[in-house]
Amino acid sequence: MKFKEYEIERLLEGIPNFTQKAHQAQNICDEMLGKGLYSEERIRQICQSQGHYFYLVMKEQNVVGIFYCYREQSERVSFLQDIQTPFLESDSLVGIGQSIALKKEARGKGLSEWLLNRATRILFDDEQVAAILIPAWMKGDHIPADRHLTKCAFTLLQTLHQPWACHEGLECPVCKTIPCSCDGAIYIKRRTSSYEK
Question: For residues 103 and 54, what is the distance between their CA atoms, to the nearest angstrom?
């Protein structure tokens, strides 16, 4: 797939230069999302798992960003344990827009919205999920991703206290503490009868 000057490629074992691309993806994750969140082994596992979609944002053969989403039963999503969701049954399939990271030169060009809309189509159309949930980082009371998420028709569901603290060994690039002391917010887009492909 192509977006402006960027190639968007799904990372799957068997593609050319898989090991090199997985290593570049891990470097971006370490730098922007926090060391210890995605090891190369974890990225390999994701690439082999059905219903998981790990995308690379490429420019001139270099990885400049990643996007990861997947489908799961709601009862198996850890952050949903603390959220009241009466419209979801424990066995409901949900989509999770787990991580997005773009290098500075790839920001401000509409890539985030394009990737979110792509994930919406995959999760609603191909995976038939009942809703898509996205965890977003909070800076104090401000949610930097709010503008992008709102533009893509996601709404704020709930804020959470330190949702990433459960990731042992995660070295957060923002708070610089282990465990991570950052707060988060959960956004949602529910499947409705008016959803258009």
Answer: 16
